[in-house]
Write a structure and sequence with these properties.
Elements (H helix, E strand, L loop, with lengths): L3 E7 L3 E6 L2 E6 L2 E3 L4 E4 H7 L8 E3 L2 E2 L2 E2 L2 H16 L8 E7 L5 H12 L5 E8 H8 L10 E6 L4 E7 L2 E8 L3 H16 L1 E2 L2 H11 L10 E8 L5 E7 H7 L1 H16 L3 H10 L1 E4 L8 H9 L3 E3 L6 H11 L17
Parallel strand pairs: 1-9, 9-10, 11-17, 17-18
Antiparallel strand pairs: 1-2, 2-3, 4-5, 4-6, 7-8, 11-12, 12-13, 14-15, 15-16
The protein binds adenosine-5'-triphosphate and magnesium ion.
C-alpha cells in the first residue's frame, strides 16, 4: 500500500473524495465548451441554468452510475489536483472506491476503469460496497454487529441494505431521491404561484424549507423565476406549506419501498433491526423530521446519522486508516492491471 490513499464516493449529485483528514465534497458537475473545461464542481453548479448555449453544464453520473465516463475522468483528475493542493503528490496512489450493489457488472466496472484511465499514477484500486462504508461512517462496528439496516437516500437513488458481521445480507436500490423532490417542488411552485423556477432554486427551497414531520413552521423563502402569464422574471415568497405538501408523495413512495424491503428481511434479522433501529444516511436524510415520518409509518426507531451526506466518505476514511477493517475493502475480480 502507498502512503497516498484516496477515498471516492461518486454520487449523482455530489462528488466526495477524502485524502488523509481532508474531505472534498462538491457538486458532481462539469461545464464545458467545445474546446475547454470552463468550470468544475461547485463552480460549475454556480453556472448551471445561467450559461449561454455554447457552454454545456452537466452531471456525468446519472441514477448512481457513470453515464459520461469522459467528463467523469476529467472531473476526477481535477478534483484530485484540488485535494492535493500545491503540494501535489508525486508518488503513486491507492484508491478506495465506494461501489453501489444493485448495478450491472459493466456499470460497476466503470468506477474501476475511471480511476485506471484518469491519468493519475495508481498502484492499488480497492472497492468497498457502499452500504458497508455507509455503516462504518455511521459509527457502527460493522464486523461484529448483527442485523443492521441502513437506508441511504441520495439524489437519484435510495439504497437499502441489511448487514451482518461485515457482510451484506440483503440490499435493494430504487431510483428515487432528492432530485424527484426538486421536480415536485418545481411543479407545485408553478401551480401555486404561476412561477417557473429552475432545479437550483427548487433545491435551495427544499433545503431551506422542507420538513417531513407533522408540524410546519409557517416560514417562507424568496423564490426567483419567471411568471407563467407575463413571461417576465419575478420573485415571490414561497411558503413551507407548499413545499411540504409537494414532497409528501415522493417521500411516501420512499417510505413504502423501505417498508416492502423491511417486510422481506429474513426474520432472523428482524429482532436485531428492531433493537438497533434503522440508520438513515445520504443527503436527502437531511430533511427535517424525516425520522418522525419513518418512525410513524414503520414502527421502528430511526437514527439519522450526523452529516448524512458524508457517511460513506467518512466510512472510507476510517477503513483506509484502520488496518483492522482492511477485510472490508476488496480487489475487484475483473481487475485490469496489477
Ligand atoms: N439539508 C438537506 N435537506 C434536504 N435535502 C438535502 C439536504 N442536503 C442535501 N440534500 C439533498 O441530498 C441530495 C444529495 O445527497 P447525496 O450527496 O447523498 O447524493 P448523491 O450521493 O450525490 O446521489 P446518489 O447516491 O443518489 O447517486 C440532493 O438531492 C440534495 O438536494
Ligand atoms: Mg450517494
Amino acid at each position: 500500500m502507498s502512503q497516498n490513499k484516496y477515498g471516492l464516493d461518486i454520487g449523482s449529485s455530489n462528488f466526495k473524495m477524502c485524502f488523509r483528514d481532508q474531505v472534498l465534497n462538491e457538486k458532481n458537475m462539469i461545464a464545458v465548451t467545445r474546446k475547454e473545461v470552463v468550470g468544475i464542481g461547485d463552480d460549475a453548479y454556480d453556472m448551471y441554468e445561467k450559461v449561454p448555449e455554447n457552454i454545456d453544464v452537466s452531471f456525468p453520473v446519472k441514477g448512481g452510475v457513470i453515464a459520461d465516463i469522459y467528463n467523469m475522468q476529467i472531473l476526477l483528475s481535477k478534483f484530485w489536483q484540488k485535494i492535493n493542493g500545491t503540494k501535489r503528490s508525486m508518488g503513486v496512489s491507492d484508491f478506495f472506491i465506494a461501489v453501489p450493489r444493485n448495478v450491472t457488472d459493466v456499470e460497476k466496472r466503470a468506477f474501476y476503469e475511471l480511476v485506471v484511465r484518469s491519468g493519475i499514477k495508481v498502484r492499488n484500486i480497492l472497492e468497498v460496497d457502499k452500504p458497508v462504508a455507509d455503516a462504518v461512517g455511521a459509527g457502527i462496528d460493522v464486523q461484529n454487529a448483527k442485523g443492521i439496516m441502513i437506508v441511504d437516500i441520495g439524489a437519484e437513488t435510495c439504497e437499502m441494505s441489511v448487514l451482518s458481521l461485515g457482510g451484506i445480507v440483503e440490499s435493494k436500490s430504487v431510483k428515487i431521491g432528492g432530485n424527484r423532490l426538486d421536480e415536485d417542488i418545481i411543479y407545485a411552485v408553478r401551480n401555486e404561484y404561476n412561477l417557473v423556477i429552475g432545479n437550483k432554486t427548487a433545491e435551495r427551497l427544499k433545503i431551506g424549507l422542507a420538513c417531513a414531520g407533522s408540524n410546519f413552521n409557517s416560514i417562507s423563502m424568496t423564490g426567483f423565476g419567471r411568471n407563467v402569464l407575463t413571461g417576465l422574471p419575478t420573485s415571490c415568497q414561497i411558503s413551507d406549506e407548499v413545499i411540504n405538501s409537494s414532497i409528501k408523495e415522493p417521500l411516501s413512495t420512499i417510505v413504502e419501498e423501505v417498508r416492502i424491503f423491511l417486510e422481506n428481511t429474513p426474520p432472523e434479522f428482524a429482532v436485531d433491526i428492531i433493537k438497533n433501529g434503522i440508520f438513515m444516511t445520504g443527503g436527502t436524510s437531511g430533511i427535517r423530521n424525516i425520522d418522525e415520518l419513518f418512525r410513524k409509518n414503520l414502527n421502528v426507531s430511526i437514527k439519522v446519522v450526523n452529516t448524512p451526506q458524508e457517511s460513506i466518505i467518512r466510512g472510507l476514511m476510517r477503513i483506509m486508516a484502520d488496518s483492522r477493517m482492511s477485510s472490508l475493502a476488496y480487489v475487484p475480480d475483473d481487475r485490469l492491471f496489477e
